[in-house]
Specification:
Oligomer: homodimer
Largest sheet of chain A: 6 strands, parallel
CATH superfamily of the largest domain in chain A: Response regulator
Largest interface: A-B, 49 and 49 residues
CATH topology of the largest domain in chain A: Rossmann fold
Structural class of chain A: alpha/beta
Strand order of the largest sheet of chain A: 2-1-3-4-5-11
Strand content of chain A: 15-25%
Order of helices and strands of chain A: HHHHEHEHEHEEHEHEHEHEEHEE
Number of helices of chain A: 12
CATH architecture of the largest domain in chain A: 3-Layer(aba) Sandwich
Number of strands of chain A: 12
Distance between the termini of chain A: 54 Å
CATH class of the largest domain in chain A: Alpha Beta
Number of domains of chain A: 3
Radius of gyration of chain A: 24 Å
Amino acid sequence: MADTARRPGNRYGSRPTMKDVAAHAGVGLKTVSRVVNGEPGVTPDTERRVHEAINALGFRRNDSARVLRKGRTASVGLVLEDLADPFYGPLSRAVEEVARAHGALLINGSSAEDPDREQELALALCARRVDGLVVIPAGDDHRYLEPEIRAGVATVFVDRPAGKIDADAVLSDNFGGARHAVAHLLAHGHRRIGFIGDRPVIHTAAERLRGYRAAMAEAGIPVEDTWISLGATDPERVRRAAETLLDGPEPVTAVFAGNNRVTVTVVRVLSERPRPTALVGFDDFELADLLQPGVTVVAQDAAQLGRTAAERLFQQLDGVPHAPERTMLPTRLITRGSGELPPVD
Amino acid sequence: MADTARRPGNRYGSRPTMKDVAAHAGVGLKTVSRVVNGEPGVTPDTERRVHEAINALGFRRNDSARVLRKGRTASVGLVLEDLADPFYGPLSRAVEEVARAHGALLINGSSAEDPDREQELALALCARRVDGLVVIPAGDDHRYLEPEIRAGVATVFVDRPAGKIDADAVLSDNFGGARHAVAHLLAHGHRRIGFIGDRPVIHTAAERLRGYRAAMAEAGIPVEDTWISLGATDPERVRRAAETLLDGPEPVTAVFAGNNRVTVTVVRVLSERPRPTALVGFDDFELADLLQPGVTVVAQDAAQLGRTAAERLFQQLDGVPHAPERTMLPTRLITRGSGELPPVD
C-alpha cells in the first residue's frame, strides 16, 4: 500500500484556487472573490453557482488565510466524544502537550456521542482553519472529511477507527485486553461470567465483546444470552443490568465491565450486596486502588493514545510521506483484589 | 450601575468598519480590503499601518464573516484551565448543553493554567469568530479582551472572576464553603487543623484560605504557620505537605483539603497510616462515598456553574441589557464519615 492521499501536492494534486472555482462556475475571478469575501454585487443565482463550484472542488480560503495568519499561531482541532468521561482527560492533555511542543494551539469540541454533531463540529473546526484534526469518532462514516483531507487538513483518528475512509488510526488492543480480562476470571475458577458493555455499534464495545466471547469459547463455556447486557453506560441502565445479572436464580459469580463508566456503577451495586462477586473493569480509573477490594482493571494508556495520535498528526503536517496506518497499543492487566475473588454460589 | 458595555450599538458605538480602518490608516478602502483578504499588491509598510489601525480600532471581519457563514452554525468558545481536572467535566458538559439548546456549537481550549496561553487561546477563538466566550481564567489581567468585548463578543467568566475588567462572573461561594468545612471540623473537637491548598494567586484558593482563617479566628484558635501549605496540587507536592502535617512532633488531627486534586492525594496518604485523621475536602469527587471512611466534602455544583454562565452568555448575545454581575452559587456540606472522626492525639 502506498497511499499518500494526505500529502498536498501529491496524488490529489495541489489545492484548488479561486481561478479553478471561477472556471468551474463560469464566472469571473472578481465574482468569486466577492462571494468568498461576502461583498455585495452578486446575484443570488451566481452566488449559488459559486458555492456549488466551491463545494465541488473542495476550495478553501487557506492560501489567503495563511497570509492573514501572519504572526498567528497554528492550531489543531480535537473532536472528543464525551466531555464528562474522565478517560478523555489524559488523552486530551497529551494531545495538547504535543501540540504545544509544535507551537500549535489545540481547540477541542465534543460530539456528545452524536454522529451528526461530530460532523458539524469537525467541519466547523476546518472552516475555522485548523491545520489538522484528531478525531475520536462518534459516527461510522467519515466520507464527509474527504474534501478537507484533499485540501490538506491532516487527520488522525484515535480510540476508534475512521469509517468508510482510509485514515490513520491509533487504537488500544480492545479485543486482546478484553480476552485477557475474561481469561483472568476463568483462571480464578469462574464459569458464569457476565459482561456489561456499551452499545455494540461502537467499535471499542464490539471489540471488547468479541474478546469476551473468544475467552469463553477458548475455555469451552457456552455463553448464555442473559449474561450479556449491552447499551448506554448511564448509571440507571448499568444498575438495572447489574441487578439482573446478580439477583436471578442463577446469578453470575463474576462481572467483566466494558468501560470505566460501567465499572464505577457496578462497584456501587456490588458494595450494596453481602455476597462477594468478582469484577474486572476495562479502563483504569482514579482511586480504583483505594476501594475495598481494590478494583482489578485492564488499563489502556490514554495519554499514550493521545500522544501517538498527535505525533502522527504533526508528521503529516510536516509532510512526512506515509500510507494511512492503524497503530495498536497494548493494554495492561492490573490486579488489585476484585478480579481475584473466587466464585461464590 | 447601568453599564451596558457589551451591547453592540450602545455606549461603545457600533462596530468599526473597513472604512474606519482606511481613514485611520490613511489608505484607500481597497488597500484595507487587500490586507484583510490577504491579497497581493500592498507594500510591507502600508500593510503594517493597516494592521496598526485594525488593532487600534478593534476591527474584526465579522460583518462579512456573517455573510460567509450563511447556513453555518453559530459557535461559542470555552477557555478551560485544566483538561485533566474532573471538576471541569460536568461544567463543560453543562455549557455544551446550553449552547446546543441555543443551536450553537461549543469550541473548547485549555490554558493549562498558563496566563499567556489563556490569552493566546481566547484571542485565537475570537479570531475564529466565536460569538461569545466563557472563560475559566488562569490569569488575573483580562484587559486584552476589551477590544473583543467592544467588537461584540459576549463574555462571561466562571469559577474565577475577571481581572482588571468589569465582566459577568459566576462563582461558587468559596469563602463560605471553606468556613463551613473548617467550622464542621471544629464542632467535632479538632483544634490543630491543617490546610493544604492551591497557589494563593488563584482566586478560589485565596478565598478558601480566607474561609479557613475566618473559621479558626471565630473559634479563637491562633493558626500556626506550619499548619498551612499552599502550592501546586500535583501528587508529589501534596504528599510532601501532608506528610509534614502528619509526621511532626505535634501532628494535626484534621486536614482541610483545598480542592479535589489535593483531596485524592491526602486520602491516599491517610490510607497508609494507622492513626485516623479527620478530612474534609473542597469539591465532591467520584467514588468519595465508597471509600472507607466516606470522604466528607464541601460540594460545588459544577454543572450549575456551567449552566448559569452559559445562560448569561446567551442573554448577552440575545441583546438583553444588563450590567456586569457577579453571581455567587452556594456550596453544600456532604457528611460521609471522614469529617466526623474525633481528634486522636
